[in-house]
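User: Okay, second chain of the day. Same drill as before: sequence in, structure tokens out.
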Amino acid sequence: MNALPRAARPFPGFARLLRSFGFRIAPEQAEAFMRSITLLGPRTIDDIRLAALATFAIDPDRRDEFEVLFRAYFHGEQSLVADGDDEETEVKDDRGHLEQTVAAPRLEASGALASTIDRAGTRSFQRDGDMLAELCRQLAAALPKRRSFRSQRMNSGGATDLRRALRLIVRADGDVPDPPLRRRKVVARPLVLLIDVSGSMKLHTTDYLGVAHAAVQAADRAEIFTFGTRLTRITPALRVRDRAQALAKAAALVDDWDGGTRIGPSLAAFLSVPRYAAMARGASVVVLSDGLERGGHAEMETAFRRLSASACRLALATPLAGDPRFRPETAALKAILPWLDDLVDGSSVEALSGFLLSLARPAPDAATLWRAS
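Assistant: Same drill. Structure tokens below.
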């Protein structure tokens, strides 16, 4: 801040003010706001307002609130007191830096793990290891594919490469017996896993991280995030080939193990960072969570709706679906069901691996499937 000219110092403060009132402003957007003001002059105070609207991408539903805050900050129309009850999810990147920090995380009790239901079950760690190895071998070929804008030379089965053909014609005085061919490449779509590490998912997070490690090792473009009360990107830690070392590095990055659950705000924080949101564009996005949101579910529904619009396929893998009696009856699950392509069993490595290996196959949307069941 001290490096900024004196006249420019109020502008970063406006971005911080918006964050304190719950607006999701990424660091990249704050930098773009400063650059746009430099570009505009600014000549009038309205230039600053327009620059803020353009770079912060204010939700139309909160436009009036933005206008009030802008007038208060730049015109001094009223005093401002940050809402102490407002919270915003922290976003932690792979380097351990907090990209977005507004309020201290809410201290919540761990999820409800206690149950009086007697449910018998067995567990084979050797089998889980075999499933992860199989997932690692097959995942790259099993992911959905798309045609790339890049092309490659072919000996047969492609379209004529006109540019190269013309060069050969000129070089051979018009004699080109075998016209060169090209065809657009087919590449795998990205895979994004968002893992709930709250207390209610404590029994499954180790399995999920094992699956995530296999995904990062197998797929060219796999991104892994954890969320509970804050969002953390752990992809670089999982690039270590040895699984134990990779999980240890990931464990050191995450600060909210076995804490509270803020699914909607965490997913909204993921979408608010432009480079994270770009990772979900055209990707297969799988949220590994029980879907049990605390408080209202409006923000969770909005986040799933936005993810559905951006992703190629959006799935919720919940351990609750491992119970044959499971039905999506909670208000939150009913609200997000129309936006899901899949609502599947995430109770074991075997179930989750089987689902990831079937991502390329078409499936009926989750709402239709669960309405028919």
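The longest helix spans residues 125-142.

User: Thanks, on to the next one.
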